[in-house]
């Protein structure tokens, strides 16, 4: 719609309001002029008395049209054109007219007048019933039937003495639409009261008519609730009671209101907007709760707060034995005490431990950065579980505290722990060391295994080193038996090769060439970068001297080839370790040597 169309529409609304307002003004002025004429001409008094009965309706119509005109002028930025003096003038005219009519009624209570419409005179005596149809003003008279209106007013110097027996004012109120209900329990109370006042309690309607009105007012879930009930005169009460039983749930509404109040957000600052939000939530919520006429509102609020702390199963048991519609906090506390008494009498069942082994955790993605992989390997310590029975001596202590286990040799402890599928880090069953979340590390080498399972193999130090004053250093023993000695450093040969990831994309990696190794090995960082799938591996891997290699994460299938040639392609299985070697070389290389052999 264009701007010109909007302006034209606004002008039409303004002109319509002005015409209706002017019509009300003319009618009020007409009644006022009749009141002025009645002071000199008593024959117009009956007409004045009739018109006074309608003057309140004229005032109401004038106020409505006056407000509509004012709103339209404000919307059009023409409020300066609003005629304020006419509103004051209309009030003065109506006041004068009513005062004039009251003066006639006060001084002439016994005199009867003829009908304002002329014709024969009718005497109704005492009128007890009110005809619902529009009626005329009926006047009784004490004069003979044949007397003329002039004879009635001839006595008492022309003064008028009249009494109106009954005045029925025809009124037409705006049509009130029937309420609609879609099955929302929060809107049931409003629908119930409105429908009962407009339809259910009307004695002039039959039950079949009420049923049709009810079906027309229901939509959605509400209509589905009574869809199966045949529409008949005898089934109306059944349908109405069905809706009441289905949707009349004041407790659910009250619980939702209390929950809304308890979960209301805190105002971030003392501003007009924030404080108004708080006021709207609590003012509306409290008013609705008070209008529901809960027997003990404070006690019900305490019940709602306490019930939020109970588990779902306890709430179900409490609701199953609940009789009253609005429970109290004392009823809830009595129920909780009874449940406590029952649970105290029931022996506790031992918790069954899950002995299923977890699969090794695969890297999140093959293209993750190294820093992200290092971060994912950091684990938080969980609270220690309840003491379990020792698998070695069947005692009630941990395996790490078992004297029998400690009395065995290191090789026996390792063999027994491997056979019993014991974690080499926390000495508990149910998982491997690679998936252990414990923060336990070896006290001798700070590796990821328990101190009781630390390898007993050590490197003998030379007599020259033991007498030297360089200080004694504890050297961690590893599967490669790399120790501190005075022999020259050995540089192992490496090569840059291409390896395929899980999508077939080639990546450049560094390979350590060891002709004496019987297996191929790969670090977990490289495995995660390539996105290779790790398969479980439980068979122990031994190093030099038969020392068991710790922290075997699994085995993966690899495909490698030279960097500058597509052939040959090597397919092999490699065992996954957190690291393959220690930091090498032990001493910095000279620049000439590094430049000579670097890739």
Radius of gyration: 50 Å
Which band does the percent of strand residues land in? 5-15%
Largest sheet: number of strands, sense, barrel closure: 5 strands, mixed
CATH architecture grouping of the domain at 493-597: Beta Barrel
The CATH topology of the domain at 493-597 turns out to be Cathepsin D, subunit A, domain 1
**Order of strands, widest sheet:** 4-3-6-7-5
Q: Portion of residues in helices? A: 40-55%
Shape: elongated
Mean pLDDT, to the nearest integer, reads 73
What letter string, H or E per element, gives the SSE order? Answer: HHHHEHEHHHHHHHHHHHHHEEEHEEH
List the total number of helices. Answer: 20
Give the termini distance in whole angstroms: 76 Å
Secondary-structure-derived class? alpha+beta
Total strand segments = 7
Indicate the low-confidence ranges by residue numbers.
109-168, 353-387, 457-485
**Mind telling me the CATH class of the domain at 493-597?**
Mainly Beta
Short description:
42% of the residues lie in helices and 7% in strands.
Can you tell me about this structure?
This protein is of the alpha+beta class and 599 residues long. Among the domains are: 3-106; 185-248, no CATH class; 251-343; 393-433, no CATH class; 493-597, Cathepsin D, subunit A, domain 1. 42% of the residues lie in helices and 7% in strands. It has helices spanning 3-40, 45-53, 55-75, 84-107, 149-152, 188-200, 207-217, 221-226, 236-247, 250-262, 272-291, 297-307, 312-320, 329-345, 370-376, 403-407, 410-419, 463-467, 524-530, 591-597; strands at residues 138-139, 164-166, 494-500, 506-512, 520-523, 554-561, 570-577. The strands form two sheets. The protein has a five-stranded mixed sheet. It has a two-stranded antiparallel ribbon with strand order 1-2. Helix 1 packs antiparallel against helix 3. The protein is elongated, with a radius of gyration of 50 Å. It starts with a helix and ends with a helix.
């Amino acid at each position: 719609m264009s701007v010109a169309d909007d302006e034209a529409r606004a002008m039409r609304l303004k002109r319509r309001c002005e015409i209706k307002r002017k019509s009300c003004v003319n009618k009020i002025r007409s009644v006022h002029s009749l009141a002025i004429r009645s002071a000199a001409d008593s024959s117009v008094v009956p007409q004045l008395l009739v018109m006074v009965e309608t003057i309140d309706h004229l005032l109401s119509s004038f106020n409505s049209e006056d407000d509509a005109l004012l709103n339209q002028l404000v919307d059009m930025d023409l409020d300066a054109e609003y005629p304020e003096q006419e509103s004051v003038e209309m009030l003065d005219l109506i006041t004068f007219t009513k005062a004039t009519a009251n003066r006639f009624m006060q001084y002439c209570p016994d005199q009867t007048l003829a009908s304002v419409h002329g014709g024969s005179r009718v005497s109704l005596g005492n009128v007890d019933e009110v005809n619902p149809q529009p009626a005329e003003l009926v006047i009784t008279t004490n004069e003979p039937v044949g007397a003329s209106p002039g004879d009635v007013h001839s006595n008492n110097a022309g003064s008028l003495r009249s009494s109106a027996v009954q005045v029925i004012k025809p009124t037409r109120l705006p049509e009130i639409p029937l309420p609609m209900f879609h099955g929302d329990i929060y809107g049931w109370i409003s629908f119930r009261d409105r429908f009962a006042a407009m339809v259910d309690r009307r004695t002039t309607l039959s039950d079949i008519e009420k049923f049709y009105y009810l079906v027309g007012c229901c939509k959605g879930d509400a209509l589905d609730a009574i869809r199966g009930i045949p529409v008949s005169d005898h089934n109306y009460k059944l349908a109405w009671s069905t809706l009441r039983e289905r949707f009349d749930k004041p407790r659910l509404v009250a619980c939702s209101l209390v929950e809304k109040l308890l979960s209301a957000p805190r105002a971030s600052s003392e501003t007009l907007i924030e404080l108004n939000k708080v006021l709207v939530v609590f003012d509306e919520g409290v008013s609705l709760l008070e209008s529901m006429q809960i027997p003990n509102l404070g006690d019900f609020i305490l019940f709602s707060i306490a019930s939020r702390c109970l588990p779902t199963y306890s709430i179900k048991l409490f609701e199953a034995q609940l009789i009253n519609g609005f429970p109290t906090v004392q009823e809830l506390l009595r129920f909780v005490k009874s449940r406590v008494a029952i649970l105290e009498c029931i022996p506790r069942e031992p918790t069954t431990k899950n002995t299923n082994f977890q699969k090794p955790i695969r890297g999140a993605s093959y293209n993750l950065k190294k820093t992200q992989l290092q971060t994912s390997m950091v684990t938080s310590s969980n609270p220690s579980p309840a003491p379990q029975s020792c698998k070695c001596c069947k005692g009630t202590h941990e395996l790490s505290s078992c004297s029998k286990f400690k009395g065995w040799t290191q090789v026996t402890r390792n063999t027994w722990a491997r056979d019993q599928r014991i974690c080499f880090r926390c000495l508990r069953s149910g998982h491997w060391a690679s998936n252990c979340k414990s923060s336990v590390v070896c006290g001798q080498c700070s590796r990821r295994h328990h101190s009781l399972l630390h390898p007993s193999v050590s490197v003998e130090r030379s007599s020259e080193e033991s007498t030297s004053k360089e200080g004694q250093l504890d050297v961690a023993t590893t599967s490669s038996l790399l120790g501190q000695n005075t022999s020259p450093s050995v540089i192992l040969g490496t090569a840059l090769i291409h390896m395929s990831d899980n999508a077939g994309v080639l990546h450049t990696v560094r390979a350590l060439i060891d002709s004496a190794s019987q297996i191929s090995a790969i670090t977990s960082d490289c495995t995660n970068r390539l996105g290779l799938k790790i398969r479980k591996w439980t068979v122990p891997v031994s190093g030099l001297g038969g020392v068991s290699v710790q922290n075997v994460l699994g085995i993966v299938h690899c495909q490698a080839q030279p960097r500058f040639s597509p052939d040959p392609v090597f397919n092999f299985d490699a065992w996954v370790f957190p690291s393959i070697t220690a930091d090498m070389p032990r001493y910095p290389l000279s620049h000439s040597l590094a430049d000579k052999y670097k890739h």
